[in-house]
Amino acid sequence: MKTVEMSAKTVDAAIELALAELNAGLDQVEYEILENGSKGILGLGAKDARVRVTFNEGPEQRAIEFLQPIFKKLNVNPEYIAIEREGALWISFSGQNLGAIIGRRGETLDALQYLTNLAVNRQYDDKTRIILDVEGYRQTREDTLAGLARKMADKARKSGRDVVLEPMSPHERRIIHMTLQEERGIRTYSQGEEPYRKVVITKKGVNRDN
């Protein structure tokens, strides 16, 4: 939470100043009137009104506050939009030179997402699942993985040999498994230890833990 105290000729004016300082709307804050202020007599002895305004930050604001210093270190200044989607808060970034946020095969983005979820949820009982994206990267990556999964399934089916994919994050492995779960004559399972756990596509076999 952020709290500021502001003074002005009226309570309403002091609140407006506080909202501008916090970059918040009235529905996002709680305020306490510390002094109502007075006009005095003939302009003498006038006192400003004074208020204390507290910004009740939501998960979106907490996530951005956590990420801003990291973005500064990476020398990027992206814009963002946040929407509720599939039971999660999706925060999508756009701008120039954002490859540093994504990293190799999305590894940096996944790490930032993991840390952001920890930072936002550590003090709250009601957890919010946060997904970070950069200019549609996640959807593009999902489409690429789905295409790879089908291609490798065809290879396994024709050759009769197991096809072992490169190590992937749990989220990406899940995409492979879900893409092929209805594929005729194909089974998938994961093997190895994190962070080197891989998906195996086989013509025969039994699904194992993901």
Radius of gyration (CA) equals 26 Å
Distance between the termini: 39 Å
Order of helices and strands: EHEEHEEHHEHEHEE
| Highest-level CATH class of the largest domain | Alpha Beta
What's the β-strand tally? 9
Biggest beta sheet attributes: 3 strands, antiparallel
Topology:
Elements: E1 2-8, H1 11-22, E2 29-35, E3 49-55, H2 59-73, E4 79-85, E5 88-94, H3 99-102, H4 107-121, E6 130-134, H5 137-159, E7 163-164, H6 170-180, E8 187-191, E9 198-202
Parallel strand pairs: 5-6
Antiparallel strand pairs: 1-3, 2-3, 4-5, 7-9, 8-9
Helix pairs in contact: 2-4, 5-6
Account of the 3D structure:
This protein is α+β, with helices and mostly antiparallel strands. The chain folds into three domains: 2-55, no CATH class; 59-135, K homology (KH) domain (GMP Synthetase, Chain A, domain 3), CATH 3.30.300.20; 145-202, R3H-like domain (Ribosomal Protein S8, Chain: A, domain 1), CATH 3.30.1370. It is 38% helix and 25% strand. Strands 1-3-2 form a three-stranded antiparallel beta sheet, with helices on one face. The protein has a three-stranded mixed beta sheet with strand order 4-5-6. It has a three-stranded antiparallel beta sheet with strand order 7-9-8. Strand 4 and strand 5 (88-94) form a beta hairpin. It starts with a strand and ends in an 8-residue tail after the last strand.
